């Protein structure tokens, strides 16, 4: 338990709206440039995007990474095919 607590203290996870691929704007008001602290602000995100972010945040929180050139940063998107809001997620110290 103590290890998990320490890891959680060190790693701050930031989510940023970086793009929109769909034709319509997000019905939850997500716009490019918005940022969220995963621990504090995820309740303000589109609920579906926050749900998807959970998987990525869990990987980062517990010491995993995504490989490639920026192993502690990746992108994901909301599953709404009309809006397809793209988010980046990364560890910031
Ligand atoms: Zn959404």
Structure summary:
InterPro entries: CHP04076. This is TIGR04076 family protein. By secondary structure, the chain is α+β, with helices and mostly antiparallel strands.
Main attributes?
TIGR04076 family protein, 3 helices, alpha+beta, four-stranded antiparallel β-sheet, CHP04076, binds zinc ion, 30% helix, 93 residues
Question: Would you kindly provide a written description of the structure presented here, covering whatever features stand out?
Answer:
With 93 residues, this protein is α+β, with helices and mostly antiparallel strands. The protein has one domain (2-92). It has 3 helices and 4 strands. It has helices at residues 2-10, 38-41, 47-61, and strands spanning 12-20, 35-37, 73-77, 85-92. The protein has a 4-stranded antiparallel sheet with strand order 2-1-4-3. A hairpin with a 7-residue loop joins strand 3 (73-77) and strand 4. The chain is globular. It starts with a helix and ends with a strand. The structure holds zinc ion (ZN). Zinc ion binds next to helix 3. Residues 26, 28, 46, 48-49, 78, 80, 83, 85 line the site of zinc ion. This is TIGR04076 family protein.
